């Protein structure tokens, strides 16, 4: 089995890197953040407060999640295009504190990781979901660099962007994700630390590829 687990704060480029690694090594890419985002979306749609654990637990009783071929399905609906907003980022971070929400995402993530070769990214993949993954990476970048990348992305997409506001949101979410009681974001002792602040995408992909080859002997398709 080849399971590559990547954790790190939001906006470090984990998804982009993980998708590229999946393509080069023939692995399935799994975005666990999309699962929390979907549960956040459903709570917002149905007027359930992420702070109301009982109501969220009731909501989850008739909620189905699935992640297939790079698409996130919430109750059978492909919600990929709806879950990338700031509002959903915070709703996902808020709702991810709840044990019933984590259990739901963990169940699907663990099932996927036990039935195929994966590259899976999130906040607790190396520590909780696949602690025995063949390759474990903790990816980070300074909040200022992440805010700058996001700011440029928005401008390039012709969307309004405010650097200070983006930085503030990044710092708030970092704090929440690493200070919650249950399975907070932290570096697993045996995970490789990778700071992407001064690296471009191809450089990060190269570094991750080298780690995979070193740990498992697997080589990317192109080489
Ligand atoms: O990776 P992302 O930005 O799409 O994740 C959205 C939120 O979901 C993040 O702020 C915290 C939560 N999350 C989590 O608690 N555990 C994971 N494995 C993945 C995401």
Could you please describe the fold and organization of this structure?
With 223 residues, the chain is α/β, with parallel strands linked by helices. The protein is built from 9 helices and 8 strands. The protein has helices spanning 14-25, 32-46, 53-61, 86-95, 99-115, 125-129, 143-156, 163-179, 201-216, and strands at 3-7, 28-31, 65-68, 71-74, 77-78, 118-122, 135-140, 192-195. The strands form 2 sheets. The chain has a 5-stranded parallel beta sheet, with helices on both faces. The protein has a 3-stranded antiparallel beta sheet with strand order 3-4-5, covered by helices on one side. Strand 4 (71-74) and strand 5 (77-78) form a beta hairpin. Helix 2 (32-46) crosses helix 4 (86-95) and helix 2 (32-46) runs antiparallel to helix 5 (99-115). The radius of gyration is 17 Å and the shape is globular. 40% of the residues are buried. Bound molecules: 2'-deoxycytidine-5'-monophosphate (DC). 2'-deoxycytidine-5'-monophosphate binds at residues 10, 32-33, 36-37, 89, 92-93, 96, 122-125, 173, 177.
Entry keywords:
223 residues; alpha/beta; five-stranded parallel sheet; three-stranded antiparallel sheet; 9 helices; 52% helix; binds 2'-deoxycytidine-5'-monophosphate
């Amino acid at each position: 089995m080849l399971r590559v687990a990547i954790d790190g704060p939001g906006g470090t480029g984990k998804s982009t890197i993980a998708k590229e690694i999946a393509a080069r090594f023939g692995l399935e890419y799994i975005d666990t953040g999309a699962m929390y985002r979907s549960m956040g979306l459903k709570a917002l749609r149905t007027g359930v407060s992420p702070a109301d654990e009982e109501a969220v637990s009731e909501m989850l009783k008739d909620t189905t999640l699935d992640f297939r071929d790079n698409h996130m399905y919430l109750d059978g609906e492909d919600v990929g295009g709806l879950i990338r907003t700031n509002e959903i980022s915070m709703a996902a971070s808020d709702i991810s504190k709840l044990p019933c929400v984590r259990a739901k995402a963990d169940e699907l993530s663990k099932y996927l990781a036990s039935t195929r070769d994966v590259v899976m990214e999130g906040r607790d993949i190396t520590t909780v979901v696949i602690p025995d993954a063949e390759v474990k990476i903790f990816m980070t970048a300074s909040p200022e660099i992440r805010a700058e990348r996001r700011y440029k992305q928005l401008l390039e997409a012709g969307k309004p962007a405010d650097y200070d506001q983006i930085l503030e949101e990044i710092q708030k979410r970092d704090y929440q994700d690493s200070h919650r009681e249950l399975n907070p974001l932290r570096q697993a002792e045996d995970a490789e630390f990778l700071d992407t602040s001064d690296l471009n995408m191809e450089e990060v992909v190269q570094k991750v590829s080298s780690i995979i080859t070193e740990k498992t002997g697997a080589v990317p398709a192109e080489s």
